[in-house]
Design a protein that fits this description.
Strand content: over 45%
Mean pLDDT: 81
Distance between the termini: 39 Å
Largest sheet: 11 strands, mixed
Radius of gyration: 21 Å
Number of strands: 20
Length: about 290
């Protein structure tokens, strides 16, 4: 494996790749946000994974490019150190099939607002063959000026997002279900209600932007399931598996999947969606780790 490193953070320590391996996540108690994009590098479709991780001590960024065998073989890692003199901007080069690929970042004034990944005032750019094949953040002009490269002819597509978050009872994340959509807040809460014989009965509520969209009672019998929800004329399939929350000892995670199945198409002549729709590639995988 070909790998360039810049101060490996704790979340990627001991030679581990940035992954969603449950054992690695549990050991470090870290929040992990992985975004997987499909784009073209050297005229070949590749997957680029951008991972942000955060625990009590350190903050990290990793950019991985899929190798020819489908594995993330080429990785650049950045440690976001808490003290003032760490290098908050820079670049690193690695080779993909013998061709140089550069990763540029600028996090000098990045705003995190307590989150694992920045919300504004930053950029992370991946460059190959004088093209910016992936650009994240809102400082786009600064990124093109720094890299001295042109935008790629093909826009990258966000195909999936994996998040590992920790909490006691309530779990919150924010996500866009398609490029032209708005940011939505998803909250998941597990509660105990008084049942027959004073035995508490678990139930679950899923809210989007504060609105209750799924309410599962008798969760001990319905620990796996799925429902469709409507969100701004889009249809989202929601799947859940909370078996380990209820029946496995120790620190265990539940899995929630949010998959858009129909997104309305907006006409260029009107702000109203048409009756037709498209099925996007995007899918959100949310791993909620319950801490007692």
């Amino acid at each position: 494996m070909m790998q360039e490193q810049i101060g490996i953070p704790a979340c990627f320590s001991s030679g581990e790749k940035a992954s969603d391996d449950p054992a690695a996540i549990t050991r470090s108690g870290q929040n992990v946000f992985m975004s997987i994009f499909r784009t073209k590098i050297r005229e070949e479709c590749r997957l680029i994974t951008v991972t942000w991780c955060k625990n009590l001590l350190l903050h990290g960024l990793s950019v991985s490019v899929e190798g020819p065998e489908g594995e993330s073989q080429y990785t650049c890692k950045v440690e976001l150190k808490p003290w003032y003199f760490w290098k908050k901007q820079g670049s690193k080069r690695f080779l993909v099939d013998g061709k140089p690929v550069d990763v540029f970042w600028d996090l000098k004034v990045a705003r995190f607002n307590g989150e694992t990944e920045p919300v504004s005032d930053y950029y992370v750019a991946v460059v190959c063959d004088d093209e910016v094949v992936l650009l994240l953040g809102n400082l786009k002009k600064e990124a093109y000026r720094k890299t001295r490269c042109r935008p790629a002819l093909i826009d990258p597509i966000l195909i999936s997002r994996k998040e590992h978050i920790f909490g006691k009872r309530k779990f919150i994340t924010r996500v866009k279900f398609h490029d032209k959509g708005s940011l939505h807040e998803i909250s998941i809460e597990c509660k105990n209600r008084g049942g027959s014989g004073n035995e508490p009965e678990p139930e679950m509520e899923i809210r989007v932007d504060g609105h209750l969209v799924i309410h599962v009672k008798h969760l001990q019998w319905k620990f796996r399931g799925n429902e469709s929800i409507q969100l701004n004329k889009a249809r989202i399939e929601v799947y859940w598996d909370v078996h380990d929350w209820l029946f496995s000892p120790g620190l265990r995670n539940a899995l929630f999947i949010f998959k858009p199945t129909l997104i309305p198409i907006f006409s260029t002549l009107s702000s109203s969606p048409s009756q037709e729709g498209t099925t996007p590639d995007f899918c959100l995988f949310l791993y909620a780790w319950k801490v007692e």
